[in-house]
Design goal:
Layout lengths: L1 H14 L12 H16 L2 H6 L4 H6 L1 H50 L4 H11 L4 H17 L1 H5 L6 H21 L7 H27 L4 H4 L5 H4 L1
Length: 233
Amino acid sequence: MSKENYDAKLNVLESLSQELVKAPSQPVDVTVQEAENLFIWAQEDKKILLSKGLEWDRYVKDLPVRTGACRYAQALWTKERYSQEEAAKTWRKESPKAYEFRNDLLADLRFAFRKRPDLLSRVRAIADGEGDANMIQDLMDISVLGKANVTELEKIKYDLRPFNIAEQKSDSLAELLAKANGATLDNSKAKEVRDRAFTHLKEAIDEIRDTGKYAFRKDPERFKGYISRYKRK
């Protein structure tokens, strides 16, 4: 039902004011479980909670839907985070090969352009700098420089295909590095919706708990059901 709850709530979540949206203040799985417990607990106190002004349909009856939507939104976000971890793993495997490929291409260009000081200076400029982003840009620059000076490369009977590979690698590695670094997650749609789903769920939880704690402030046995066990720890 979580997917159905998510679909049913998506428009509501997207319409929430940005000022109200908060990132989870505690683990989402804990919040979801506490919401489910609270829903069961509140059933016995319906008349009293209603008498204190709690909007039953808006908050209690709707709680399972909000809970399911939050659970599914969290699953989508978790999936995206795992994708980041996979990208980081792939980057660690592929980046050493890319550095070696870049260095081989630079060696090829130095040999091909050894009698052209003007071109050698451009190769040196490309070789300057360090870091992953620089290496990725180097591959693109090498590709452009090589394709623009085919005549010099043909003199050493050079196969031009590596320049196409360099261009392709530059694009694919840039995307891979962004995922590995989490750059694409900062403004992630999945994270945004997860935060909205959590905010929407917490609104109902807070209303029910606040009313319950007030209504049963002199009844410890019922009062305890409106307290977060997580926060008590």
